[in-house]
Amino acid sequence: MTTDAGGIVGEFLSLKESTDADVLAMQCGDFYEFFADDAELVADELDLKVSQKSSHGSSYPMAGVPLSELTPYLKALVERGYRVAVAEQYETDDGHAREIERVVSPGTVVDPDGAEARYLAAVEHDDGDDGDAWGVAFAEVTTGRFHAAAFAELDDVRAELHRFAPVELLPGPGVRDDDARLADLREATDARLTLHEAEAFAPGRARHRLGDHFGTQALAAVGLDADPAVAAAGAVLHYVDETGAGVLASMTRLGGLDAGGRVALDATTQRNLELVETMRGESTGTLLDTLDHTETAAGTRLLREWLTRPRRDRAELERRGKAVEAFASAALARDRLLDTLDGTADLERLAARATSGAAGPRDLVAVRSALERLPELAAAIDGTELADSPVPDVLARPDQGAARDLHDELSEAIAAEPPGSIGGDGGVIARGYDEELDELVAEYEEAVDWLDTLAEREKRQHGLSHVSVDRNKTDGYYIQVGKSVAGGVPEHYHEIKTLKNSKRFVTEELEERERTVLRMEERREELERRIFEEVRERVAAEAELLQDVGRALAELDVLAALGHHAATNDWTRPAFTDGDELRIEAGRHPVVEQTTDFVPNDLRMDSERGFLIVTGPNMSGKSTYMRQCALISLLAQAGSFVPADSATLPLVDGVYTRVGALDELAQGRSTFMVEMQELSNILHSATEDSLVILDEVGRGTATYDGISIAWAATEYLHNEVRARTLFATHYHELTALAEHLPRVANVHVAAEERDGEVTFLRRVREGPTDRSYGVHVADLAGVPDPVVGRADEVLDRLREEKAIEARGAGGGGTGADGDGTRQAVFDLSAGEFVAGGDGGGREDAGDAGDPDRAGDPDRPASAAGNGAAITASDGDGEGGGRGLPPDRALDPEVEAVLSALRDTDVNETPPVELMAKVQEWQARLDDE
Ligand code: ADP
């Protein structure tokens, strides 16, 4: 765009050139105007009318909004992802000038109405010497929240992005210079990406800036020393400062993300468990939505934080549990407390408004009335069951003395019901607060009183009737006299106007008084403004106190809300154990139970039983059961009660889930690839103390691939990771693992079939389900009989075929390998284990299915001759068919495959690689 337009348009265009914002709003008198392309854009987006502005012989589109209405338009533009520069007009000696005062972007728009947090984020990456290093920072300009941390894994960055759901993200140079990384980030967030200047991310400068702002100790206090983390945090500060929103000062504390004390919850798991957003991206029907009985916006924000960041610190959880328990049982006190919180202003937000200078008289009144709640809340607690719980301590956390002082000062300084802004008739500052103002107001009132009574005096003194004294903009104060008596006015009356029925006069004295009144009004406004600003600064100086009080009120709100939910839904307080035992009696799904006549189920796990294979027909309730178990664990570690009759739970360090396919295909990734990435992440990240939920693994590929992967993953989780695992699978074959792997057990969700009708009982029972229901469900769903019949046939044939194919490949029996390691052989055609033995190819497949004999080391293996066989390694064995008799001559290709198989350490090979290997082996055998 050239700037030879000159005039006001020229000025607009050259200001626009000086900023990297998408749109410029320039003040022109009482309006903010947009010109040229910006006018078109704004008109399109916001439905404004476009007119034409002529300038230096050309015509330009122009759109405008009144000064007082800019904020909603700004917000609307920013919501749509634009960054808007705002140029203000100010007076100079020779007219006026305009300058860009601030740039409003999604992450820096101050004062959004919604209760939702709007985070600004920065992410930086560094190829450090010790591998990947990520740094993230999150800031919320309306509450002053500021967090930063370093991570070694992109997955952790993703998890935080999911948790904070930022609206704007600044990728650092280490991220944006790498297409793949940038693409990863883009996929992990809906935030608008803003390319902020690279120098802001320079670690040296960033460190300096952080030290200046938060104090040099702060960095060490939150353990922030990794360069990318410092860079991200520094860049966020720089950006907030640059945009001129003036809220930098409200960021009083630098917080870490304390991943160590939290339950690891990756983004996938947060989504799968529908904590704050359903799989479809909605907020109703989530765990947060179900539990949110809070009265305040700050309470909702804190509850969200608790649910997405469960804790591992037992003392903290016991404290929350006790408080919730007190609230659950003290219904009256709870209601009173919630009533008191109702309508309390958002102190964190008000603190930010005070520091940015945006707070008006009514904001300070809101602060005052929020502070007033402290003693009221104390009274609501005092003498009730709450008094003997941790509840009073929450309230006592902020500095009570300081809060009282600030409250008293605000009471003294600000009128009870001040107008919305300074000026006009005054009345913002309370009487008795400032002597000078009081004197001025007294004089002013006296002067006004003189004017108010002037008409009466004039009537009396000059014997006039129909006299009034009034004031308007053009004439100022005047004496109005009815036309009939206007001839008799005294001489010192000067006529200023004739109306239809009256005449207006002034006198010298009236003019003198008028000047005095106007002077006093001006002076009063000036004084009120000055005093108000002092008071506001005093409030800003207490931003930290207000944040503390805000946090305390939010916590009371959350605890009371959780108590309310527990009491009204028959939830129970969980007990935590240091041991391995996990016992849930009559557990329910917290969200599903709200809308369904829910059938409760138990869960029992311990050191002997750490891996449950969950089977059952489609739609029987497997997913629901597993999710409810995960949610109960999470709720407990959020500090809440849980939906169960009783629950004894070990503290978990992470919850990992892998649940049926989402719409990843739409995102250009194959479902199977996603499934494997998720599985890989779980196998890498979970520990003995984690809870793993697998809802179908290997479904996205061919059956035998799928089984192989599910099989290997089960072994790995059972033997190596040793995480507590619930694994729902439609591979009925896997249920046989329970006989071999010591900590694996089967449970199934029962269904009853009578006269061809299946009734879902929703009951979880011990043992595997008795059949595979796939074809059966097709039948139920009304698929035509010939198709169902044929499907049955095909299924049988497939099983046979597989057996034949495997035999052609040479079989592979295996047995006890001399050092006493147990091994078992799985016969795919029979669908069951048979005993490991000497591996001699005896053809006794007919017996293979006898479960009583399975696993018996003395019994010869039967599978080698006619079935595909897999060995299950139980963790201390070597695996791999070493028991082949030397006299069986094998094809060299088969030999090669076997030797590759022997050389593969199942425990050391990532599953995806294993899968690739198995595929390759199969291909080689197929070529035979
Ligand atoms: P699956 O994973 O076995 O296919 P789901 O867990 O998706 O089955 O459950 C299928 C349906 O059954 C869901 O609509 C769910 O609401 C309902 N359901 C599951 N468990 C229960 C239960 N314990 N009580 C009542 N309804 C249930």
Describe it for me?
This protein has 928 residues and is α/β, with parallel strands linked by helices. Among the domains are: 7-104, 3-Layer(aba) Sandwich (MutS, DNA mismatch repair protein, domain I), CATH 3.40.1170; 119-259, Nucleotidyltransferase, domain 5; 587-783, P-loop containing nucleotide triphosphate hydrolases (Rossmann fold, 3-Layer(aba) Sandwich); 893-926. It is built from 31 helices and 29 strands. The strands form 6 sheets. Strands 12-22-23-24-20-25-26 form a 7-stranded mixed β-sheet, sandwiched between helices. Helix 14 runs antiparallel to helix 22. It is elongated and about 135 Å long. It starts with 6 loop residues before the first helix and ends with a helix. The model is unreliable at 662-668, 802-825, 835-868 and 875-888 (pLDDT under 50).
CATH homology superfamily of the domain at 587-783: P-loop containing nucleotide triphosphate hydrolases
Assess the beta-strand content as a share of residues: 15-25%
Distance between the termini: 70 Å
**Bound small molecules, which ones?**
adenosine-5'-diphosphate
Our count of helices gives: 31
